[in-house]
Design goal:
This protein has 71 residues and is an all-beta fold. It has one domain (10-66). The protein has no helices and 3 strands. It has strands at 10-19, 37-41, 48-54. It has a 3-stranded mixed sheet with strand order 1-3-2, with no helix packed on it. A hairpin with a 6-residue loop joins β2 (37-41) and β3 (48-54).
Length: 71
């Protein structure tokens, strides 16, 4: 199923679950441009109701050799 690509506001449910993060993690820091995995519902198309935030794993290392720019 594919959406139309419209941006909609996020609304977080009161009993939000955080999955895959460190044990005991009680909050998540979000910012514009953050890559996140969210689970929820978008029934009306007016907003996305977020019920779960899944942690996105990172390596923690940056390798400049992987960022090649070709002109």
């Amino acid at each position: 199923m594919m959406g139309s690509g419209v941006r909609v506001p996020l609304k977080f449910v009161p009993d939000l679950k955080i999955r895959g993060g460190p044990k005991g993690q009680a909050n998540v820091g979000l910012f514009p441009g953050a890559i996140v995995a969210l689970k929820g519902r978008n029934g009306s198309g007016d907003w996305f109701s977020v019920s779960e935030v899944m942690a996105v794993r990172t390596t923690g290392h940056f390798c400049p050799c992987l960022c090649l720019i070709f002109f």
